[in-house]
Design goal:
Blueprint: H1 2-5, H2 9-13, H3 15-18, E1 45-47, E2 50-53, H4 58-76, H5 90-100, H6 128-135, H7 138-147, E3 157-159, H8 173-179, H9 181-194, H10 201-223, H11 232-250, H12 257-264, H13 286-303, H14 308-322, H15 325-334, H16 340-358
Parallel strand pairs: 2-3
Antiparallel strand pairs: 1-2
Bound molecules: 2-acetamido-2-deoxy-beta-D-glucopyranose (NAG) (2 copies).
One 2-acetamido-2-deoxy-beta-D-glucopyranose (NAG) is lined by residues 39-40, 70, 73, 83.
Length: 359
């Protein structure tokens, strides 16, 4: 049992992130169809003086990210050349992963939306992943338009509604602001500070994560029932993922190209089906199996008090075995105490250490 649980500590302390960073390359491996993706507003059609974007077509949605990355590039020049330190890369990378792993298809299978044999580029409104991503695409994009950094005015862009549930999605700057005021303000705060020459990378990353978590919370409330369309393991993974993001946020995980693309190699390469049980999924790599198990464990730890005692010991043992003495020190200091709150503290502290290791 111990040897099975043991690697999960890696998720907490970030063993998988420690290895050297991936070479920065905009290959299709990480960003499918990136080269065919629209990269400027003039690539979209115009009606009544507004750019019309259909976010339910994969390259069109991806194009919003491409424009966002392009328009924010100059604010990241002071950190590194070639947009390499732009932490907005995490958003298109995750969307690319969703597309590549089949997570944007119609999970109810009542349409051919997203399927290889049907309309591959279609993004299904019934996909939980696609709906969650909408809040991490439309909102950051429209807030950027509103902040002025995109070079067009707030009323100059309109997103097309999906085929159903239209009222759950905001389509332009003003409707997003009235439906999700708090989240839009947080994205705006990020862009405001981005334009300030005195902002540090760490400060900006904090604004990014505040907005990111707020977007996810908005989306989660609205679309939780979509998880019912999935197998138990996939629905569980979706929920685990949201918990993990809280930890990544607490750690200010730098969502730049190299760290996110490396992290993705550890994520499930296809939608999970009934019977998939980490760490025994035969077509997954060891790393993918271990991380899936670890994400699940992290969620259990996050939500349960009973599990605490077993886990803390396993985790700390792993700290001692695998990671530098600094981490072991934290564990020794913390482990005698029993409050769950303390364990959460440890998890968050470990994540913070993790973030430091990466830098
Ligand atoms: C942004 O896009 C424009 C137009 O496609 C291009 O000329 C420019 O080099 C791009 N800038 C960056 C930093 O990618
Ligand atoms: C934004 O969309 C709403 C409906 O979703 C519409 O009533 C409003 O006129 C639009 N505003 C602009 C500036 O286009």
């Amino acid at each position: 049992m111990l040897s099975l649980l043991a690697p999960s500590a890696c998720v907490l302390v970030g063993c998988i992130f420690v290895s050297s960073a991936e070479v920065f390359s905009l290959s299709d491996q990480y960003l499918p169809l990136w080269n065919e993706t629209p990269g400027q507003f003039s690539d979209y059609s115009v009606e009544n003086g507004k750019y019309i974007i259909d976010p339910w077509v994969y390259p069109k949605r991806m194009g919003m990210y491409k424009i966002l990355l392009n328009k924010t590039a100059n604010y990241f020049e002071k950190f590194a050349p070639d947009n390499e330190q732009n932490f907005l890369w995490g958003l298109p990378l995750q969307h690319g992963w969703q597309y590549k792993t089949g997570r944007l298809v119609d999970p109810t299978q009542t349409t051919d939306c997203g399927y290889e044999s049907g309309d591959r580029l279609c993004i299904s409104v019934d996909s939980w992943w696609a709906d969650m991503n909408y809040f991490l695409c439309a909102l950051p994009f429209l807030a950027a338009v509103d902040s002025g950094i995109m070079g067009i005015s707030s009323d100059q862009v309109l997103l097309l509604p999906p085929s159903k549930d239209q009222t759950k999605f905001c389509l332009n700057v003003s409707s997003c602001q009235s439906s999700f005021p708090s989240t839009m303000r947080k994205w705006n705060a990020l862009y405001k500070h981005l334009q300030s020459p005195s902002s540090s990378f760490e400060d900006l990353l904090k604004y990014l994560w505040e907005a990111h978590v707020s977007s996810l919370k908005d989306g989660y409330k609205i679309f939780e029932d979509r998880l019912e369309y999935y197998s138990k393991p996939e629905a569980g993974f979706g929920k685990d993922w949201c918990v993990v993001l809280d930890y990544l946020a607490a750690a200010s995980f730098p969502t730049i190209f190299s760290t996110v693309s490396e992290f993705q190699q550890a994520l499930p390469p296809r939608v999970l089906v009934d019977g998939d049980k980490a760490p025994f999924i035969s077509d997954f790599t060891d790393l993918q199996n271990i991380v899936l198990l670890g994400l699940n464990l992290l969620h259990k730890v996050d939500s349960s008090t009973e599990f605490w005692e077993v886990t803390i010991n396993v985790v700390c043992m792993e700290c001692v075995l695998f990671v530098p003495s600094a981490l072991a020190g934290i564990c020794e200091e913390r482990s005698p105490r029993k409050e769950t709150a303390d364990f959460n503290g440890l998890g968050k502290q470990s994540s913070i250490v993790m973030a430091r290791i990466i830098r």
